[in-house]
Amino acid sequence: MAAKSPAIAAAEQAGIEFDVHEYEHDPKAESWGVEAAELLGWPPERVFKTLVVSLDERLAVALVPVDRLLDLRALGKRARMADAGHAERTTGYVKGGISALGQRKRLATLLDSSALEHETILVNGGGRGLQLELAPADLVRLTSAEVRAIASPR
């Protein structure tokens, strides 16, 4: 296993059940989230990408299935994607490796309601090529996530 990420440490400290899934990430992949689903053999609706958004100048993370788009309108009139550098500095993770868990500065979390349809989902484990499998209820509890419909079809 790769070096323990802050996300893995946070999951361990919380005492939740989770599994680590690793794969060889290709930086040239068109969609890093779809790449994770394909290489790990998971249905894309169970693999959630973490996107950092700006909501009225405060950052938040939004998790949606990798085969869907984030519906920024569902987050509010002023919602927009955050600057990658600002997201990296705030969370302590690199783009493509941002996790909802173990952030340097804990951000508000929004989780697409489709996550609750599954016993477990994959979320970024704090590095490119690193995914954590956990129960959506545990993710909600650990992040105090707001769960609502925030994804739209591709």
User: Approximately what portion of the residues adopt beta-strand conformation?
Assistant: 25-35%
Please give the count of helices: 4
Cα shape: globular
Ends distance? 33 Å
Q: Would you identify the regions where 5 or more consecutive residues have pLDDT less than 50? A: none
User: How many beta strands in the DSSP annotation?
Assistant: 10
| Main β-sheet, spatial strand arrangement | 5-2-3-6-9
Describe this structure in words.
This protein is α+β, with helices and mostly antiparallel strands. It contains four helices and ten strands; from the N terminus they run αβαββββαβββαββ. The strands form three sheets. Strands 5-2-3-6-9 form a five-stranded mixed beta sheet, with no helix packed on it. Strands 1-8-7 form a three-stranded antiparallel beta sheet. It is globular. The protein starts with 5 loop residues before the first helix and ends with a strand.
Question: What is shown here, in short?
Answer:
By secondary structure, this protein is α+β, with helices and mostly antiparallel strands. It is 22% helix and 32% strand.
Give the helices and strands, then pairings.
Blueprint lengths: L5 H9 L3 E5 L9 H9 L7 E8 L2 E8 L2 E3 L9 E2 L2 H8 L16 E5 L8 E7 L2 E5 L1 H8 L2 E3 L2 E3 L1
Parallel strand pairs: 3-6, 6-9
Antiparallel strand pairs: 1-8, 2-3, 2-5, 4-10, 7-8
Comma- or semicolon-separated keywords:
154 residues; alpha+beta; 4 helices; 22% helix; globular
